[in-house]
């Protein structure tokens, strides 16, 4: 409880991060509960198309007369869901592989390092495009594709952390009293390796949102759900007459990603106080 | 003496070239895997298009493509074809994939290099300025602008720039690479392309500008605490000379490293930006391939651009030695 309090004090010392956390909670609330309070179907034609914002509909209507506010609310859920689940999968994969490679070293380490290098050099967005196109776009395949291109950076980080810890005195002490290796990895090293991983994972959520929006902008979104990138893609052809139609969802992406990045930096300050200012 | 300096470099180039082989092989294997995971093979697709998809016809096509062979034979066949840059034929356009890519490549390379030069040039400058004005309002403005650019989807930024500069202000073209219908040559053509290049290059470059500014700033701040900087200041050199001639050169290395690592990322960004601006490069080809579900073309683009990225990384590695003679390639 006390550590939690210390963490909170450190985190809120970074005022930008504290403000961003408030914004992020608001976006999460919209994503989670928005559709319960605002029940308009984002695919339903509710009025004349091309209505500007602040008229009959708070954010106007799109090319097909669909309510943009409803799209924004539903899109928040979809974008965040995909980003968070993809990040969780990528982090879990990355930490598992990175931990094993870092702790045991040897051939496993070599293979892992070569394959992460491989994934880090090839154009990851293009790979995501190809993956989604081959497996045909759906929330599941998009999440999968983003996770596939995201895990290597976590794996490298986790590996580095485990290498730094594996020969420390406390680990040797565990070995001396016969602690099983899985227990050393999971219970003793992992908690110590976690802070930088948490920071990288939080930033990865932001990157995933950007990747998802890029994919659905290209027409690789799930056809059954609305996402912010899809809304920008739809509005693209009418930029000349209704620029705000593309501006609104893009602005939402910007605000969300900015908030996540700032919170991530705040987490970094709070969890790794020694690295402050780097 | 000279020979002793040159020969390790040459052997380094050779060794790095050999090191790229496993990477290229890995990409080829990934591609092969994806081809086989993709639902429906080439034969089914072609037969379906011909409109007379009898089973016999599909079998005949399978034999033609070697699809009836065991998997490892197909794999070896695939690798053999890749060696001659035979990436197969576009399912729909019936043109060799490599030809389609080669035609589009120059436009993408032009866009990427312009964006990269813009980002590194301006990023290094802004980074030095921010570092020399550490914790002043200039430093703060640069940092905040960077944070916002980081969070902006590049393709959306492109659209908004079109709204501002092309639609509202009518200053720059909305898209394309040159004025359609105007038969321009030589310098006029170059100027026309340049005029069309401004917005896409700016859109693509801004993100990296933010990245490099931030990195250059941090790197400069680190170099500033080194002894040789204190020595330079003690000699009475002006702050300008200390920053630009002594510190910047040393602070540049991490920027180059990152630029090398990010070439693949840059290419991905380029694909999105090209579709926004109708820039006739690989990105547009990707979009066409997506529209027509042309898996062969998509995979060809993935393979070739991955190889390009590997080669670009090799180039960056070699550049290090030029920039910092202390780095001896062994």
| Rg calc of chain A | 22 Å
Tell me, briefly, the overall form of chain A.
elongated
Oligomeric state, counting identical vs distinct chains: heterodimer
Which structural class should the secondary elements of chain A be placed in? mainly alpha
- Helix/strand order of chain B: HHHHHHHHHHHHH
Q: What distance separates the N and C termini of chain A?
A: 28 Å
Please give the share of residues in helix of chain B: over 70%
Write the element-wise H/E pattern of chain A from the N-terminal end onward.
HHHHHHHHHH
Describe this protein's structure:
The complex is a heterodimer of chains A (278) and B (330). Chain A is an all-alpha fold and 278 residues long. Chain A has 10 helices and no strands. The longest helix of chain A is centred in the first third of the chain and has 37 residues. Chain B has 13 helices and no strands. The chains are: A mainly alpha (278), B mainly alpha (330).
Short note summarizing the structure:
The complex is a heterodimer of chains A (about 280) and B (about 325). Chain A is mainly α. Helix content of chain A is about 75%, strand content about 0%.
Task: Outline the fold blueprint.
The complex is a heterodimer of chains A (278) and B (330).
Chain A: H1 2-13, H2 15-37, H3 68-104, H4 106-121, H5 124-134, H6 139-166, H7 169-176, H8 181-217, H9 228-235, H10 243-271
Chain B: H1 2-37, H2 42-50, H3 55-65, H4 71-83, H5 97-132, H6 137-151, H7 154-168, H8 186-224, H9 227-234, H10 239-261, H11 263-277, H12 282-291, H13 295-323
Helix pairs in contact in B: 1-4, 1-13, 2-3, 5-6, 5-8, 5-10, 5-11, 5-13, 6-8, 7-8, 7-11, 8-10, 8-11, 9-10, 10-13, 11-12, 12-13
Features:
heterodimer, A: 10 helices, B: 330 residues, mainly alpha, 13 helices, 0% strand
């Amino acid at each position: 409880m006390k550590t939690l309090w210390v963490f909170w004090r450190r985190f809120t010392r970074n005022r930008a991060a504290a403000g961003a956390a408030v914004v992020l909670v608001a976006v999460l609330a919209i994503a989670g509960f928005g559709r319960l309070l605002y029940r308009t179907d984002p695919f339903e034609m509710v009025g004349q198309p091309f209505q500007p914002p602040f008229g009959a509909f708070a954010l106007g209507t799109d090319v097909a007369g669909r309510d943009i506010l409803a799209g924004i609310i539903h899109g928040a859920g979809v974008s965040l869901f995909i980003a968070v689940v993809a990040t969780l999968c990528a982090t879990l994969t990355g930490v598992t592989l990175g931990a094993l490679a870092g702790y045991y070293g040897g051939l496993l380490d070599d293979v892992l390092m070569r394959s992460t290098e491989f994934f880090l050099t090839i154009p990851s967005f293009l790979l995501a495009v190809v993956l989604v196109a081959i497996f045909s776009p759906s929330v599941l395949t998009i999440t999968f594709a983003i996770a596939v291109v995201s895990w290597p950076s976590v794996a490298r980080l986790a590996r580095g952390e485990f290498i730094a810890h594996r020969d420390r005195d406390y680990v040797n002490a565990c070995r001396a009293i016969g602690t099983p290796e899985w227990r050393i990895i999971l219970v003793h090293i992992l908690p110590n390796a976690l802070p930088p991983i948490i920071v990288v994972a939080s930033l990865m959520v932001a990157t995933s949102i950007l990747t998802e929006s890029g994919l659905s902008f290209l027409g690789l979104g799930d056809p059954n759900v609305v996402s912010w990138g899809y809304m920008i893609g739809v509005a693209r052809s009418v930029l000349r007459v209704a620029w705000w139609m593309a501006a609104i969802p893009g602005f939402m992406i910007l605000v969300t990603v900015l908030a996540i990045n700032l919170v991530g930096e705040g987490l970094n300050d709070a969890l790794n106080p020694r690295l402050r200012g780097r | 003496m000279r020979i002793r300096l040159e020969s390790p470099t040459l052997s380094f180039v050779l060794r790095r070239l050999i090191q790229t082989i496993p990477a290229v092989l890995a990409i080829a294997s990934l591609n092969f895997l994806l081809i086989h995971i993709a639902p429906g093979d080439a034969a089914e697709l072609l037969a379906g298009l011909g409109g007379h998809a009898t089973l016999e016809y599909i079998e005949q096509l399978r034999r033609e493509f070697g699809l009836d062979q065991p998997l490892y034979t197909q794999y070896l066949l695939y690798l053999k074809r890749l060696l001659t840059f035979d990436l197969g034929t576009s399912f729909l356009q019936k043109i060799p994939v490599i030809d389609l890519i080669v035609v589009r490549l120059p436009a993408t390379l032009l866009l990427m290099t312009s964006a990269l030069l813009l980002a590194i040039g301006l990023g290094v400058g802004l980074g030095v300025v921010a570092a020399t004005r550490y914790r002043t309002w200039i430093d703060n403005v640069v940092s905040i602008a960077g944070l916002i650019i980081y969070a902006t989807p590049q393709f959306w930024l492109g659209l908004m720039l079109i709204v501002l500069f092309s639609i509202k202000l009518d200053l720059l073209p909305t898209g394309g690479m040159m004025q359609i219908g105007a038969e321009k040559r030589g310098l006029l053509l170059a100027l026309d392309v340049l005029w069309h290049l401004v917005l896409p290059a700016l859109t693509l470059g801004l993100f990296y500008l933010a990245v490099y500014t931030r990195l250059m700033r941090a790197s400069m701040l680190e170099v500033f605490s080194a002894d040789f900087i204190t020595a330079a200041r003690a000699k009475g050199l002006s702050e300008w000379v200390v920053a630009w001639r002594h510190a910047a050169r040393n602070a540049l290395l991490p920027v180059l490293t990152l630029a090398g690592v990010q070439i693949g990322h840059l290419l991905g960004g380029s694909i999105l930006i090209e579709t926004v601006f109708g820039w006739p490069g690989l990105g547009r080809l990707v979009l066409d391939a997506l529209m027509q579900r042309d898996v062969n073309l998509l995979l060809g683009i993935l393979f070739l651009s991955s190889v390009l990225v590997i080669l670009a990384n090799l180039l960056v590695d070699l550049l290090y030695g030029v920039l910092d003679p202390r780095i001896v390639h062994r």
